[in-house]
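Comment thread on ticket #2218

A.B. wrote:
> Attaching the input chain for the structure job we discussed in standup.
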Amino acid sequence: MEEVMIRFNKILVPTDFSKGAESAYAAAQKLADTFGGKVDFLHVVPTIKYLADSARRLGTPIDINEDVYPKIYEESEHKLKKAMSQYLKKESMGEAKVLIERKPSEAIARYASSQNYDMIVIGAKGIDQTKLMRGSTTEKVIRKSKIPVFSIEGRLNEQQIDNIVVPTDGSMLSFAAFPMAVALADVFGARLTLYRVMELYGNTATGNIPSPGKEEVVAVYENVITRLNDFLAEQGIESIHVRRSGVSFEDMVTITGKGESGSIPLQTKVEKGVSAHYEIESYTADHADLVVMATHGHSGFAHLILGSTAEKVAQYVKKPVITVRPDKKLFE
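C.D. wrote:
> Ran it. Output below, let me know if you need it in another format.
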């Protein structure tokens, strides 16, 4: 039996020292306030291979590794410690780590996994920010990371986390994010919404898109709840169960463990749309305070909500997004 309790004992905050990256600092401290644990900061200095090669060809008496990198390393470590002292409470401060790697996103994901972090908290936009989407480094970290990634733009106000939205296509893979969402809803006193998009196919140019009937929408809802409970049972998560209310689309999530029990309101929203990620973006913009969803990681495209849809949602949604990578067993 698995408990629903989730601990964030080790939180990693990658930063490029930009304004966009700063969004993650306060959010990490909020998580540390709520769950305890330590916050480490990480800065990755990209290797300048072409510069080293050029200097060698030209016979320039400068050794990149001995002359340049030690100075950059020292300066970066100083900036990390300064940022930590400004944004973190003393009891939450962990280590400042500088890495020199060719690909920052791969280095972040690899380091977080090898050092057994519980979560990566990263600014949605860093130096490579655009006005439209999360920065490319953040997007790549989301894609490669084996541990949950919390990407945030702006401030996190835990007092205003009222509705946590979990997008799903009804597959077992998409439910991998549900236990995390339940744990966060329990801590923040929030409600949960399962959001299911029925992708419709037809002649969009003429607007000739078939409209599902009420019975079909109810059938989709019933299927989602049945499969979710099957997923929880198959994963041995006995501490979480969806209790049917008798009213379609309105149920309760019950949490049990250590002699205590609690319940969280669960709404299931089923909507039709031509594009899953567009519908998710539109819905979460108006209704979500936090989005928690599964992503496919390295295993290739899985189902509708996973793969490219998850990445597009993580790129364009303005609300804080937590992505959770499904266990390998679920891909089998």
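A.B. wrote:
> Thanks. Noting for the ticket: Residues 201 and 207 are 10 Å apart (CA to CA).
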